[in-house]
Amino acid sequence: MNYVSTRGQAPALPFDEALLAGLASDGGLYVPEAWPRFSRADIRGLRGLPYAELARRVMTPFLGGCVGDDDFATMVDDAYAAFDHPAVAPLVQLGADTWLLELFQGPTLSFKDYALQLVGRLFDHVLARRGQRVTIIGATSGDTGSAAIEACRDREAIDIFMLHPKDRISEVQRRQMTTVLSDNVHNAAIEGTFDDCQDLAKAMFNDAALSRRYNFSAVNSINWARIMAQTVYYFAAAVALGAPDRRLAFAVPTGNFGNVYAAYAARKMGLGVRRLAIGSNANDILTRFMESGAMETRPVAATLSPAMDIQIASNFERLLFDVYGGKGAALVRAMERLRCDGRADFGKARWRRIRKVFAGHRLDDAGTTAAMRRIHETTGVVVDPHTAVGIAAGEACRGDEGFGGAALVCIATAHPAKFPDAVEAATGARPALPPRLADLQGRPERCEVLPNDLGAVGDFVARRMAERRAA
Fold first, then answer.
1. Is residue 181 part of a domain?
2. CATH code, domain carrying 418
3. Angle subtended at Cα 145 by Cα 142 and Cα 150, rounded to the nearest 5 degrees
4. Is residue 258 part of a domain?
5. Which domain holds residue 365?
6. DSSP secondary-structure letter at 24?
7. What is the pLDDT of residues 355-381, one digit of tens each?
8. Which of 123, 121, 92, 95 is nearest to 105 (CA)?
9. Which end of the chain is more exposed for a tag (fewer CB within 10 A), N or C?
10. pTM here?
11. 244-261: pLDDT as tens digits
């Protein structure tokens, strides 16, 4: 199993090298050279398995022998042992043929934990075997940062730098990052948007001298291992509800497109997914694309669902690579148009291929508040703003003929206590953090505010790394 770049100019890599590289040397994202396929019998064989065992079976084909079976089993078991619910990814019924997949049972109360708790261990294993160190550079719109920091804190062979947009994430999200005072953890608040943070991170990777000097790597959703681990909970939910003998649709609140792309990847692997509903907030570039076939950027608006306050969804490039038939050069030209002109049209035939699987729906802040209130009143379930957008998208798109009567699984991406002000305004009840995080507001913070400037961020990294080496 080798991995190729969506841009077509970087060498193919085995799993362990793609893991450490994160972003390909040509600026593209790694995808499998060929998809592993699970037969209907294979999928039936996953029924009733504990989450960790199911995870091992789903992910092992992606490793290509780069990680030993026993070592991988230990890592997977350790990654999910401390999750709050014995099912790891429990399903809650919201109505007839409608379910909520609660992906906030991990240490930072976000769906990002399901991948990053494993990815941190994979990094440790591969780096120890090679006698190497890496410097992880990441950008976060809220949840990736805390999950990545929790996965990488205090690890001997890793330093992690996380960029977040200043004053554009919730206080709980910020504090989950900035109160981690481990020596190898470095937080920066960027005076800009998430897209600015993401551009800065990518620019640092593209600075060959800087990247070599510090051995940069990534654990956000540009890293293939993140997508690999996220496919697991789609398989887990599907088999719990009767797959492959029952067809399903998933509704996913969507920012950087990694979570919903993992569902698409599960479909490529043989899982019977009829439809994928994308939930957008006011930053609705993906929903507008689904409606018109044209992708057009607009200024980023701050919303109640900050993890979705994104215009350039990095992982969409992986989907485009598929519909471009793996032709990296043509895809590069299309992405350059989007970057330079703020608009790109990928062709009607490609758009129609995407629309056969994906549907989109948008919700502004007023609609998000109303959805949280309605869900609470009708089901008794309290959800965060992102999850409310996803549920509303699933309900709105369910009438599409493409759904074909499939059971609908809505993805709960974060614990409501991560967004207490928005939830309280909608439902009248202020959700409490779990006891292990009850003192979060009183913990000291460490974070540096930086301008949206590549030189300033590069200087920050160099200064912190020099301090680390001198210690």
1. no
2. 3.40.50.1100
3. 130
4. yes
5. 91-109+224-427
6. -
7. 999 999 999 999 999 999 999 999 999
8. 92
9. C
10. 0.92
11. 999 999 999 998 899 999
